Amino acid sequence: MIFSGKKSLGSERGFALVLTMSMLIILSILGILVLSATNTDLAITTNYRSSADAFVAAERAVEYASSPDILFETDDTHLALVQEGTDDFVTDTDETVAGATVADRFADLQDTATGTELVKSDDEDINVVKNLGPSDLPAALRSKFGDEFAGNFYRINIEAQARNDSRSRIETSKVRIFKKSDDSVFVTTSGG
């Protein structure tokens, strides 16, 4: 029996081609689905990481703002205040605290490795340590320290940003507790 390459069975014409094309279409659809799922997972992971970086930058700024040089300042202290309508930092002399300008404070809190920084804004209520002044202690602290103590209250409002336009905002308060008869005794406590 000699087989000739020119002769084919009538019922098998094009079947192998149709089967091959069908398998290629199915594999292509599966590849697209896998690629789409991978891209979605990568986007979620990247956003999570960027959000975490922004939160860490905001936490770092709160710790920085809690330093005695800044916290004991009598006026409000801005960490990233820019002039209205520009991207230039405010250079008023009353914004210089312990020899550091707004630009110095911003640079101290910027992290080029992770791409995090404070949000620059001309809004005086963002990235600021507000000195709310002295007052009697709240009931919870008064029961702990007694009536002979008072507190100087501060509100810290921080907003940081990271890659992918991720932002994190932290608002906290600090209390500098002092003895009413002697202002040299300081204890700082925080509340979230």
Automatic annotation (TrEMBL):
UniProt keyword terms in alphabetical order: Membrane, Transmembrane, Transmembrane helix
Residue spans crossing the bilayer: 15-37
Protein name: Type 4 fimbrial biogenesis protein PilX N-terminal domain-containing protein
Organism: Syntrophotalea acetylenica (Pelobacter acetylenicus)
Upper classification of the organism: Bacteria, Pseudomonadati, Thermodesulfobacteriota, Desulfuromonadia, Desulfuromonadales
